[in-house]
Fold:
Amino acid sequence: MLYWLTALSDGGDFFNLFRYITFRAGGAFLTALIFGFIFGKPLINVLRKRQGKGQPIRDDGPEAHLSKAGTPTMGGLLIVGALVTSTLIWARWDNPFVWMVLFVTLAYAAIGFADDYAKVSKQNTKGVSSKMRLALGVLIAVLASLWATLHHPGDLQNQLALPVFKDTLINLGLFYIPFAVIVIVGAANAVNLTDGLDGLAIMPAMIAASTLGVIAYAVGRVDFTEYLDVHYVPGTGEILIFTAALFGGGLGFLWYNAPPAAVFMGDTGSLALGGALGAIAVATKHELVLAVVGGLFVVEALSVIIQVLYFKRTGKRVFLMAPIHHHYEKKGWAEPTIVIRFWIISLILAMIGLATLKVR
Structure:
């Protein structure tokens, strides 16, 4: 919205700053951060009052989690509220990729909110049926994938770009949309599975979003793409504003979610953040790089898949408990130890993901 202040500029004054994506990204970060600090405590008080007993705790989970009973959930409303408000203030409204990512974020947040509400109101851990969640998630991802494809340059439509390999594209044809849907739905559910400890999901999501934001800015500038030998996707630079807002909103939430958490993000936050990461990867044609940048989420999801398949086949378990962060809890690792070490792993993977921009 504030971009239109450039109409008041003569090219050399303060209003000219609003032309620059980096300036507006900084503004988006600060706006979202301040939003989180201002509305965080009031929101938690409302959630605590409305929810009473808070988020139901699984009886078969780690014993340490029983002490978290009564902690309110749906804290993702704070992240999404800060993120959407800040993005609308600082991003250009004529950019299709910004609206595509916002659509996925809000739509997945709505699914998560419905699931959290069902859990809290019924005081059980089932919530909305998994089939319904999956069906809605797929529908949203299909619309977003078509949206992105229609706005990609003609030579990139339905193409899969390979990281590291220069100018290498694989034409997936009609299979690209299903592939993109898997990326978005998979990212949403992987972040959702990771959200099991205080602060565990939010920081890796912020790190991954920041990395993808840098990538979006790079592939949205023709001079950068020529230097880095990556594919040029006009308009994706504005996504940096979205990711900056996500980082600011995430920090505001983390202030209250740091151990011991005063509020859980719930599915409202985890599905929204995961869906946003997948949508950004599809928009920037860096779907495979997301698997590296968000490698922690991939491992968490794989641990569940491996556990389920192996148990059905043999009746035995590979991990003491899945997702894998619970495995380390069962082994006696303290919760802060797991969280911080997983943060470190996420940061390492993010650096590897960024390196793919130059390694050609």
User: Anything to note?
Assistant: The chain is about 65% helix and 0% strand. The mean pLDDT is 92. The radius of gyration is 20 Å. Residues 2-355 form one domain.
